[in-house]
Amino acid sequence: MGQRRRAREFALQLLFQIDLAGTPAAEALERFWTSLEVDEAVRSFTERLVNAVLAEREAIDRRIVAAAEHWRIERMAVVDRNVLRLAVCELLWHEIPPAVVIDEAIEIAKRFGSEESGGFINGILDAIRARVDSEGRRAEA
To answer: 3-135: what CATH class?
Structure first.
């Protein structure tokens, strides 16, 4: 498994804990790293993702809700909504090709979510990517 995939999976686990348990981010990060020895690049990318998602969560959630017809964000499975948050964050504010972001999100959703998670994530992210592209905020790499 690549370092970025590992960082994304760690970020998902942290966001899950913050979302579900309401643990403050600083506390969740501190506790999380006490039991793991990871490369500094993995830790840095993980924390960058978590902090970016938390800083932009309202804007990210608006994008998700706009693309998820008939779904309120609070009704989505915790894993699915946090995979979506991570991916939308990367689509909007990171220099990673959209196809890579979407593929990574689908694979992580399949691993941590339900049988339906991959298709659900794919459909919402594809709609968001199309909107982002049409706004001219990000070009396909």
So the answer is: mainly alpha
pLDDT in tens, the chain (141 residues): 689 999 999 999 999 999 988 889 999 999 999 988 899 999 999 999 999 999 999 999 999 999 998 889 999 999 999 999 999 999 998 788 999 999 999 999 999 999 999 999 999 999 999 998 888 754 433
Among candidates 75, 51, 50, which has minimal Cα distance to 65? 75
Q: Domain-by-domain residue ranges, the chain?
A: 3-135
